[in-house]
Amino acid sequence: MSFRSLFLGLSLIATTALAADPLLVAGDKFRQLEELLPTPNSYRTASGAPGHQYWQQQADYHIDVTLDDANQSLSATEVITYTNHSPDTLRYLWLQLDANRFRQDSMANRMRTVSVADEGDKANRIDMGSYRRELMTQVHPSGINLTRVNGKGGEPLKYTLVDTLMRVDLPTALKPGQSFELTIGWQYQIHEQKALGGRSGYEYFERDDNYLYEVAQWFPRMAVYSDAHGWHNKPFLRHGEFTLEFGDYQVNITVPADHVVTATGILTNPEEVLTPVQRQRLAQARNANTPVQIITKTEALENEKRRSEDTKTWRFKADRVRDFAWASSRKFLWDAQGYNKGGTDTLAMSLYPEEATPLWDRYSTAAIVHTLDVYNRYSFDYPYPVAISVNGPVGGMEYPMLSFNGPRPEINKEDRSDRTWSRRTKYGLITVIIHEVGHNYFPMIVNSDERQWSWMDEGLNTFVQYLAQQAWEEEYPSKGGEPREIISYMKSEGQVPIMTNSESILQFGNNAYAKPATALNILRETILGRELFDFAFREYAERWKFKRPMPADFFRTLEDASGVDLDWFWRGWFYTTDHVDISIDRVRHFTVNTKDPEIESQWQRRQHQEKPETITEQRNQGMPRFIDGKPELHDFYNDHDQFTATNQARNDYADMLAKLEPFERDLLQDDHNVYLLDFSNLGGLVMPILLELSYDDGSSESLTLPAEIWVKNAQKVTKMLVRPREKRLTSVVVDPHWQTADTDVDNNHYPRQILPSRLELFKEKKKKNMMQNYAEPLKESGKEDG
Ligand SMILES: [Zn+2]
């Protein structure tokens, strides 16, 4: 044997030996996360809290912007005061120019791919929306057109554009504790939202020739510089929305005098832009129990006919926010209702065009109030002075204090007063408002980085949204949260772990929203219980409000505050694509063997007799046998079966008893029922085994085996149950209340069940032939189009 074959031989033995150990085959699903998480330091502690030297930068803005309604464009100037609270000296600053995503040459546009099948039913097809966007991208002059980038003394600063980012080189390095002031002027062509998509844009209303603007991601914003990542200078591609620094904003928005403007922050000059009646209604709304109309439908319909040549400047002030968005139109109806509870003193407001009634006047502000109620309960008191929902072209998007929400009723064109809506539209509206207003908490205040981790705000927010939906009405059609709703995703192909960068996520909605929300709901209802979970979740929100958490801070805080090792849970749900499928494979029943020949011989005989007769035995019954009537052929064995107790057995038994301790003798007398339950983990994700046990006396019992049952062998385990003599187990059900998102409930029953279902019968449709189609009478509209 050569050295080489000796070595191979040994390694083969080693592999076989490894394969035999289930812990090594399935991996240690309880291995602590420390090796994956960043090392704790004085900025972020091992407990998941901000450290004693935690810092973050501050970016304050003074912006003057003018809306050109005729050209749907903006011209603006901003003064940014950037304060370096980091311990580092900075030689350059990075800014986000997210609107540059709409430039023809943006990375987002150039990286966009299509999938057009070249065979089958869907061959050579592309949807009109995608094609229209492709065409619009060719011609739309989008992006931030910089007119100046100056220092405090007006001196031009050297800057470099890198896709949606801009680096500004500082004339002198910015030391810790110092501030730098820069002035930026720019022009910005707003895009038609329905044509180019995105999280902002305008909508044009042909009937009254008006525009409605939802303006966001519209100004050069300071990129984040943090202890965890340095500059967060990733380009804006598609999914990873943004993270920004907190700061104080003063924004002056000049619009046509008949426009109504709403924005992040409080209006500081209402006497200049609102009528006395509107101001009085706003004051009245503060203490109202239902929304008060600030601008009524009649007033809005009147206003949308105007075309003022004058302008007005609306002045807004917002403190401790990480962004600023606004909306403007002649078309707005406006309602408001005060919310003053606990530490929250705010005004819930909705602005929407007439086209959104009567859904919006009924539900929007009510949904905001409800969101504040529920989110305050599970996180912290809403700290801002306003909470606004605006209806326009954007389907759903959040900014501080302000959200854009899309759903509207169907309008009958023949009779505009005839309005209907689907169930989906109604609950879609309430859901999107809860969701987008809820984003004030995550990530507008708990400032996670969506450009890196979508789940940290979408997932956490969808989880609290689920709690709010359940608190809105019974049987609310929630999508994310209920374990049974996530099953088809959990067993689907093409998944990536939740811990995946926003742009690389496959099946975005399920991965970033529904799965983390469901995981947290399971953690709350099934792993920790409501009390422990709610305490720990609130602790996370409190620790990180107005700060910037990373995934490790969330994982660590929930363990730190609940006192429960959840590393296996984070590992399984957030770092893998395993799913839950626990099978009850077998139940074995035992009673203790007494070793007493008198008892055991009878027991064995009974077992023998209870076996089913073979078919031959059945057919041979009553058959005459050869020894019948021949006593000379009978002996001892014809009178004593194989189970007969012998004296030797009795003596052995007595000898054995004499050698036993009293407790050992008692054990032989024990008459409990002993059950061995075999489980296998087919999905890979370790979870507690929730059991419902039924007995023949009609009673049942719930039993939870903790996830740690899988600690040594994550594939197969056997659990022993000892029950009193009178309790005979008749059935075992795993996860009877569908709490764990177990993907295959057929194997959750022992014995297995036959479940009823419906078989759909269908009939092939007969197609008309060409002669029949040709002979069909031509309609008027067909002639016109043809
Ligand atoms: Zn969201």
Automatic annotation (TrEMBL):
The keyword Signal applies. Residues 371-573 form the Peptidase M1 membrane alanine aminopeptidase domain. Residues 603-624 are annotated as: Disordered. One of its GO terms (biological process) is peptide catabolic process. The keyword Signal applies. GO terms for cellular component: cytoplasm; extracellular space; membrane. One of its GO terms (molecular function) is peptide binding. It comes from the Bacteria. InterPro entries: Peptidase_M1_aminopeptidases (IPR050344), Peptidase_M1_dom (IPR014782), Peptidase_M4/M1_CTD_sf (IPR027268). Residues 607-616 have a biased composition (Basic and acidic residues). Keywords: Signal. Residues 1-19 form the signal peptide. This is M1 family metallopeptidase. It comes from Ferrimonas sediminicola.
